[in-house]
């Protein structure tokens, strides 16, 4: 057990060790201030709020009242997509003033170089930076990331506030601004001088090839008929207790000559090359398949209704940008170009998987709607229902998100607003929590002819 009061969950969903002082939601004692307690209304912890407010300092009580005012308006049980732009702006204002005593983090105890129970992974270092920016402390709840029901049970059981290393836009959680984008890679020994030209390269069927069990790369290989000759690394629930089962070990197999090539998640390879001096060649493969995504944005995850905490984390990540970049560089994480990530890289991105995106966008956004889908009828709308460029500018100045507003405009079939937001720099490929880009939303709105 970690010395900071962390816990570790193992199948079949029971605690090996437990310390009752690991988080601000455990009672007794209550370790959060009244501000933290007000924040906990997002998870329905009204009892904790009442207890904490008894010992609140004056300035905390003032912030607690402002937060409670926000929450009392019915926002506590709404998801991100259910809030209006004005409500999201209000949540951002609360986030800028919120203070919390403790941040409970769920992380995998045996998944280097991302995280481990000794806090040696780059995800551990990144959340330390976030905690420093927030002026709070970290307590851990250790749980293998491959456990079934991970997101639902950790939040329902109040095991943590934040999940590390979540795919941005993951549907079961609300994620922060993407921290970085990284690809799958091929790993070979430098001395072998192997450069794979694509998934149809005949050498992939001749070389001793290693891949791990649940992998987009394994799926891409299967599409090209590469299945029988693979050395499949099976993921384990107890890799913290048996480090040889951790996915990065497949890269070590290449170094040791046990296999000729490994297809792994980029950070596993960069870790051995940069931090352990392995003589390996790393080849990103994110651009050699147009159907299976082989590059991903990673972020922090919070409960879907915890919008204030999301914004707090977003702000902290932005403030810690330079330190986070240093951490990712030190661990050798291959970084892909990413305009909306905290840290962007130099590896070219695959980009959208719509090869005819521009033509589809032109038809969907600019072609007149059918008569029964006229969208906004301005002559029948009241003044407060019409979104003008002036109102958009005011919202954006107050902190509204360009991409969120683009999604709203597409849902409202407001072509003028879409054109304005695209001019202002909205990302036509940005995904909402349902994993839909504006193009998908527009396609769903078009009446078949």
UniProtKB/TrEMBL annotation:
InterPro entries: Ankyrin_rpt-contain_sf, Quinoprotein_dehydrogenase, Solute-binding_3/MltF_N. This is Solute-binding protein family 3/N-terminal domain-containing protein. Residues 102-335 form the Solute-binding protein family 3/N-terminal domain. It comes from the Bacteria. Signal peptide: none annotated.
